[in-house]
Amino acid sequence: MMELEGEKPKYGEPRKYDPTFKGPIYNRGCTDIVCCILFIICILGYVAVGILAWSQGDPRKVIYPTDSRGQFCGQAGTPLETKPLLFYFNIMKCASPMVLLEFQCPTTQMCVEKCPDKFMTLLKAYTNKEDFKYYKNFCKEGLEGLTVTQILSSGLCPAMLTPSKPFTRRCFPALDQKKGGEITVGNNSKFDDGEGNIRDAKDLVAGVKNATVVIEARQVAMKIFEDYTQSWYWILIGLVIAMLISLLFIILLRFLAGIMVWVMIVMVILVIGYGIFHCSMEYVSLKSEAGSNVTLKDLGFQTDFSVYLHIRQTWLAFIIILAIVEVVIILLLIFLRNRILIAIALIKEASRAIGYVMSALFYPLFTFALLSIVIAYWAVTAVFLSTSNQPIYKVFNETACDHSRKICEPANFSTSSMKAECPDSKCLFAFYGGETVYHKYLIGLQFYNVFLFFWCANFVTALGQMTLAGAFASYYWAFVKPDDMPAFPIFSSLGRSLRYHTGSLAFGSLILSIIQIIRVLLEYIDHKLQGTQNKCTKFLLCCLKCCFWCLEKFIKFINRNAYIMVAIYGKNFCTSAKDAFFLLMRNMIRVAVLDKVTDFLLFLGKLLIVGLVGIFAFFFFSGRVKAFENTAPNLHYYWVPILTVVVGSYLIAHGFFSVYAMCVDTLFLCFLEDLERNDGSAERPYLMSDRLLKVLNKKNKPEPAE
């Protein structure tokens, strides 16, 4: 339908010619001052929360195991410094289902110098002076003059000792399994439980299994940590290679953009094709291997991920995924071949711009440093907040008791009414908590810590986007390059952004942070409701998560373009977001054709770098190439350094290509403005390069002869 006369255009008036406009405006004022003040107040509050957490928290609670008195085993400068291991009086009591609920065994736990290495019962040890001297290492103080019955009834000693081995600073029975499947402990299939009963070693299995429910994942974590200690320098070499390849790629784009883009496309297709070929060979080679036809569903979750590489179904999944990616890329290339030519011209122009603003390539390092500070502050504050609780003691008992799991005080528990009513009960350390005002609002402080982390991280990212946008906009609108550009475009743009637009940066990042924190809450609710069978609730949560994911992507898109407009015109965030959105909507077809195809090509560049480095890392760390067999480190999981190198390579490539992407987006908005402001006449010539004029079938008319 045609617009009625006098009616405003749906997406605003096109930008009119302004002879005084010569790029980013220098005479500008502060924008979104209220949000700037709010951001500063919140940052000061964040610092106060950090100081409060550091004064109350105690990271030792995470590092050291805790005995039944709430003391830290092995802590330097304490009487327990020489006793780094935690010993359970009766590991079989850890088989109780309550362990899974409260993460605490209902048995006395004490710090010891080393784990017991032989079978022994208190009854037998008591009759032998040397044995009893050894046995006392695993008992509390105050045994003098007491009989065996008195010692056991007072809970001063365990009824028995079993050969144990330290694992994550805890003593667990040294269980083993013979070829016939028989469980043994200390090479014996049976043991005396200290109460006159001969029991099977398999009775210890359930206790050990439940006792390790909290630390089962730590075994994998420790192995991963060991792998990092063995391979960290090779990982660094891989990341340096990724950085050099990324830098070389950017430099080549500066001079050979057209050729490099097509080489990149061909290389990506070849790398994926090689991946399909390699996976196919692995799939075929496993055909005759026993057990390789087990399905992933039957196999279940395994901590040793290398097991999955011996299953044919794993390689079949890899083949299918890579084949789908290959087909999608080829189809996109076929249908977008003309658009790719246009996008290549835009990338060439971006290469020219980066050539004039070379310092922009190193700006991501500054952003990375700021993000590292934000992440480190958040992580340290979170650890101190989570460890700022006080030790809570609860009543643990073997028989029925009305006071079971109630809070108690270990100092006077032996004379309390709880002990009188439940003679076999014990007051043991349960967990860390608290009843003070600080402890009651601790969850709120944790929430504040997470929210400010999102806000600060988004602010740093936004600052980088606005700084780069201002630098590249000064290049585009310079009539004579580089004479009309600032001497240091990056520093000039960074200064303007911080001096005038901290409020706008805080406003945009606040909106994004609110959406992100809502997504975190939805994930938390979904995790809490995993056991529910209400399909309506699951469907509603799924819809909400999807909607907020889409909203987050949309806000990121709006923010990015709003920051470009703020960098150019110096207006507030809302006005800039509206102007950018309307400008893009008035040129919707160009947005789809140029901007998104260019993003796709830059993504292929990142994919190529990650693929090349990833393939090299795979062959090196897996030892599949004979030349590297003696050089590669011995690892528990060779996928640990491979995955680290791949993720690190992607982040490095993303850092370099994000500069290109920001340059393309800035130039894109600038030449849309150029098309609306100017018409190619001698009075209003286009400021875009000859390449872009040719791509858009535009040209500047020569000045009329006098």
Automatic annotation (TrEMBL):
Its main location: membrane. Belongs to the CTL (choline transporter-like) family. It catalyses: choline(out) + n H(+)(in) = choline(in) + n H(+)(out); ethanolamine(out) + n H(+)(in) = ethanolamine(in) + n H(+)(out). It is a multi-pass membrane protein. One of its GO terms (cellular component) is mitochondrial outer membrane. It is found in: Cell membrane; Mitochondrion outer membrane. It holds the Pfam family Choline_transpo. Keywords: Antiport, Cell membrane, Glycoprotein, Membrane, Mitochondrion, Mitochondrion outer membrane, Phosphoprotein, Transmembrane, Transmembrane helix, Transport. The gene is LOC110486497. InterPro entries: Choline_transptr-like. This is Choline transporter-like protein. One of its GO terms (molecular function) is antiporter activity. Choline transporter. It comes from Oncorhynchus mykiss.
